[in-house]
Design goal:
The complex is a heterodimer of chains A (158) and B (307).
Chain A lengths: L3 H8 L6 E8 L3 H7 L9 E9 L3 E9 L5 H5 L9 E6 L2 E7 L5 E3 L19 E6 L4 E5 L5 E3 L9
Antiparallel strand pairs in A: 1-3, 1-4, 2-3, 4-5, 6-7, 7-8, 8-9
Chain B lengths: L17 H16 L10 E6 L5 H12 L3 E5 L13 H11 L2 E6 L4 H8 L4 E6 L5 H15 L6 E5 L6 H10 L5 E5 L8 H9 L4 E4 L11 E4 L10 H8 L17 E3 L20 H19 L5
Parallel strand pairs in B: 1-2, 1-3, 3-4, 5-6, 5-8, 6-7, 8-9
Helix pairs in contact in B: 1-5, 1-9, 2-9, 3-4, 5-6, 5-9
The chains are: A mainly beta (158), B alpha/beta (307).
């Protein structure tokens, strides 16, 4: 009879090659799949929601087989999942581990929440400048110059 | 330090350095004193006004013509291809091929910056939605300097709708270069937004919030009035209650500083009573006239005819 800990390994099985995105705030995994366009990935993508986490309380996990995420790709998750850790797996071993970094600029990642911003009226890319605050992040739209907090962001470019 | 604005877009006041602002004001002063009717001979300005404007459009167009340049354009977007669904980007790219510089106003925030991506010709932003209106700020600074003989270390009050009024936001940001002491007088619901206050605090600019003109009127060199729009209030009763609190009349000016001047970006509706017009403090009509010289200076500078 396997104990509970061993059973856990069957719930989220190890991958041979690819990326494990861990420590995603609970509820954000599906959005991450959209942002990284993992729905059109040719190989297996496993998603787990609401795992217990010491630091986050609850967390989501996404495992992507046969694709190694780059730092730039990971940084696209800065708004949704600033706590995420990226684990690159090669031959079942952890080859590299890195954190999401908040980039100075976010291009083509989020839509501007200001309905009167030109970016919501023309077929064009968005661009935001980020500024770390004591708690969270401020985002300034390059076009309308309005400043937003992370919570104001409702839509992501997918 | 020499400044060179040749080919530059003037989109946001924050992109102009103190030296550049001072150079624009100096050129505006020179052009007011000694007109140069041939300076822009042979140049054409596109005047692209996608929403109504009286002062801004006419002063841009007059500025160009009084410097010897020509103007093409429109004051009503329904006569353009934007009505057929053409994007702003395409429209401005094409207009940019015809003219040497473009003065524009558009109802959407960020439209001027988008237009600047479409063309290499300098874009002069005459108002992009609720965002920026840098030429208004430049003419405000020019007027303050003209009537106070200096820009540094002045006591300046801004009154009215400070939440939505883009002119007061840009002016407050520009005044951070000149060490002003700022007083913000507004109903609680229309006070200066926190991101502007944070910016001022970061730059160590002293400011305070007030709810009555009387609290500050005798302490300032400039009283910058703005209009409170009824439609900003969800509850019309609330508007009725406060609208008369932010009205200036001649009697209130009796104990103000001798050098104190009242400014207003205009149009005024009821917030400055007409009995103020004949006092020595009224300076808003001169301010409106100065728009001409500030815009002349900008046009001549972005077209590389003066530095």
């Amino acid at each position: 009879m396997k104990n509970e800990k061993q059973l856990r390994t069957f719930k989220v099985f190890a991958i041979k090659e690819g990326t494990v995105i861990d420590h995603i705030p609970a509820g954000q995994a599906l959005k991450i799949i959209q942002i990284l366009k993992l729905y059109s990935h040719d190989h297996i993508v496993t998603t787990g929601l609401n795992f217990p986490s010491k630091t986050l309380g609850k967390k989501d996990i996404v495992k992507v087989e046969n694709r190694e995420l780059t730092q730039d790709e990971a940084n696209k998750l800065a708004i949704l999942a600033p706590t995420a850790t990226i684990n690159i797996i090669r031959n079942f071993e952890l080859a590299k581990k890195f954190l999401v970094e908040i980039p100075k600029q976010l291009s083509k990642v989020i839509f501007c929440p200001n309905p009167k911003c030109i970016t919501n009226h023309e077929n064009m890319h968005t661009l935001f400048y980020t500024k770390k605050e004591k708690v969270g992040l401020k985002l300034q739209c390059h076009y309308c110059e309005k400043i937003f907090s992370q919570n104001d962001i409702k839509e992501y470019c997918v | 330090m020499a400044t060179n604005l040749k080919g530059r877009d003037i989109i946001s006041i924050k992109e102009l350095s103190k030296e550049e602002i001072l150079a624009i004001l100096k050129n505006a002063y020179d052009l007011k004193k000694s007109p140069k009717p041939k300076l822009l001979d042979g140049y054409v300005m596109g005047s692209c006004f996608f929403e109504p404007s009286t002062r801004t459009r006419l002063s841009f167009e007059t500025a160009m013509q009084r410097l010897g340049g020509r103007v093409v354009g429109f004051a009503d977007p329904s006569v353009t291809s934007s009505k057929k669904g053409e994007t702003l980007y395409d429209g401005m790219k094409i207009i940019g091929q015809y003219v040497d510089a473009i003065a524009m106003r558009h109802p959407l925030d960020g439209s001027a910056r988008r237009a600047a991506e479409a063309t290499d010709k300098p874009i002069l932003n005459g108002g992009d939605g609720a965002n920026q209106h840098p030429t208004q700020t430049l003419l405000d600074l020019f007027t303050i300097k003209e009537c106070q003989k200096k820009l540094e270390g002045l006591d300046i009050a801004m009154v009215g709708d400070l939440k939505y009024g883009r002119t007061t936001h840009s002016l407050a940001q520009a005044l951070t270069h000149f060490g002003a002491r700022l007083y913000f007088v507004a109903p609680d619901s229309l006070q200066m937004p926190s991101y502007i206050c944070d910016e001022l605090a970061e730059k160590k600019i002293k400011f305070s919030l007030h709810s009555k003109i009387e609290e500050v009127i005798n302490k300032v060199d400039i009283l910058y009035m703005t209009r409170i729009q009824g439609e900003r209030f969800a509850d019309p009763m609330e508007y009725e209650k406060i609208k008369n609190v932010f009205v200036l009349n001649a009697k209130m000016l009796e104990k103000s500083r001798a050098n104190m001047k009242v400014l207003h970006p205009l149009p005024r509706v009821g917030e400055i009573e007409t009995n103020v017009d004949t006092t020595k403090h009224a300076y808003y009509f001169e301010q409106a006239e100065n728009g001409l010289y500030a815009r002349q200076a900008l046009l001549a500078m972005v077209l590389g005819k003066i530095k």
